[in-house]
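Hi P.,

Sorry for the delay on this. The queue was packed all week, but I finally got your sequence through. Input first:
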Amino acid sequence: MTHLIGTQKVGALAGSRQLLADLTLGIHSGDSIGILGPNGAGKSTLLRLLAGRQTPDYGVRTQVEAATLATVTQADEFAAGATVREILHPHQAEHEWAADPNIRDIHAGLLQGIDLDSATTSLSGGQRRRIAIAAALVQKPDVLFLDEPTNHLDVEGVAWLARHLKGRSRAGALVVVTHDRWFLDEVCTVIWEVVPGVDPGDGRAQIPGRVEIYEGSYAAYVLARQERERRAQVAAEKRNNALRKELAWLRRGAPARTSKPRFRIEAAEALIANVPPPRDDVELVKMATARLGKRVIDLENVTVYYEDAAPAHPILAGVTWRLSPAQRVGVVGVNGAGKTTLLRLLEGTLEPKSGSVRRGKTVKVAVLSQNTHELDALGDMRVVEAVSAVRQSIRLGEKEITASQLTERMGFTRARAWTRISEISGGERRRLQLMRLLMAEPNVLLLDEPTNDLDTDTLAAMEDLLDTFPGTIVVVSHDRYFLERVTDHQVALLGDGNIRDLPGGVDQYLQLRQSVQSVQAHQARPKVGVCGAQDEGGTQAASSANPASAPATTVAPKGGGAELYAARKEERALMRKLEKAGQALNSLNARMGELAANPTPQAVAKMAELGQESARLQAEIETLEEQWLELVEQLEG
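Then the structure:
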């Protein structure tokens, strides 16, 4: 591995505060480094120091002279009046960059639907983010610095970026600041955790921030960090015991010394060996049924289309979809497919063009929107005051939590909880927004991109909080880790007007999208027959498929057309069985919730019977999913 960038005893100040100190780090070719840490710890500062965009207050930064660097910041700033083509390929003819297959792949993965001659000022935030990333990638730098690259990207865009970065890992180094844990786990092989400094005040010496290094992906980092904290706790207990003994044995000489325990992966694995599942689904269904009743929100034959669009191309077309008590649904889909429209329907701020939306009498909906403008009017209030203004306490699970306890649980220290709202960061505003929603005690939560601006520790706290929420949750998010952690199943909006269940989760959605793109690319090719000549009437020899119902791949297995047809037919049959079994399991859980609301001896006996049936259905679904995945692998050849 070639050394590219290094720092020796580097430090950075933020006013009189020692933000970072004594950083001795190195970046080598082939490194894929993920930077983590709480909001305000100095992650972006560290990235600027490494990239040479900020001069350290002390210490030395070195760089190989021939090494090329590219940086994507959170600002996505472009030259005034510049077009997309000028940003991506300045002073370069189209045939020059289009001849490179790597650059063509970048265009296909990030720039679909974007006119290269359009001005960057006319584009949306998501499009500007894609252009900024593409502009850095086409440079093929030796070291690529990315600051929150997944912001404004959908699930498909994040998956493409991860795949592309893994493909270029041998060609150079990657340093990325992100809170997207799936992306970290997929791309990074080393985690740098920025540990924030402490300013005790009263003239006492500051403890500057530092960087802890963990080998491995995000999953390995979580395991190693937990083991490190366990060792620190054990060491602290040993110190306390030693101090107590020292008081009794001061006159007999120096206290005994203890050796440091070595890191053992087995010890870290033992920490999670007996950890229970994150949620007690039966108890949550019981509580949710008591609060919500049998009906939550039902969409009955609903059709929605925009006023400026033709009714022939609706966002939703004759959709029937039902939410049940304690159901946790994740919604994925391309931009413009109607995810936010679906949330507005459920919220009640949008009425369908036809069909009906029926709500239970006790339904109380709360929406976490993508912005936090509603907090602007509360700028002079303290954080804890803004939470307690909604309600003094709330019951989550079997515990009653006060406003101050909730703020502490969501990562606000006692001092920070009394900070004015006008002075807190974007991530802290997001946390406050969620806490105020929860204090209102809704029984249906609609979360629209809830992970924006939140660090990983706060995301873990939010997930823990939502695990005890006794109601129905619908989440729209590009954060795959959060989506799969918080929700029990996912649905997709593919742009065809339907809501499609995803028994195979986000992986199945990405395969469906790949299939849609393959079919569209196939239909865009010249329409020729099997012998290379165009058929009579200009029709295509191969039959066209409906993209929404296309199989997960278009690669034929060995053996010819008959085997391909049979495999695709079997795949569609498996999908129907999976959807049917999933619907049956949802109905069964809803029935168990109804029985749990009135636990008579007969109901308890029936619940035991239904529990056995639920276990059988779960096993059946797992078997069907395994068969479906094996078939997909065969289709991929």
